[in-house]
Design goal:
about 80 residues, alpha+beta, YefM-like fold, about 30% helix
């Protein structure tokens, strides 16, 4: 994706808008910092980031999870007492 500074975007606006309408989005920057992204109106919406449950079905918690390391923990506290 191309990035144009504001001055260049102003001088080439017609061509850039036509390219964006054809599916080639671009970014306009000010002092090198990206400010806006220009895309066609009929472009598909970016999917929202879905964080909660993103690893559903990909992990396994053992049945003895609550007791894992229990012996070691008891030993540490008994030695320190």
């Amino acid at each position: 994706m191309q990035t144009y500074n504001i001055h260049d975007a102003k001088t080439q606006l017609s061509r850039l808008v036509e390219q964006a309408a054809q599916g080639e989005p671009f970014i306009i920057a000010k002092a090198g910092k990206p400010m806006v992204k220009v895309i066609a109106l009929n472009a598909p919406e970016p999917a929202q980031i879905k964080r909660f449950g993103f690893m559903a079905g990909q992990t396994h918690v053992p049945n003895d999870f609550g007791q894992m390391g229990e012996k070691e923990i008891i030993q540490i506290f008994e030695e320190g007492a």
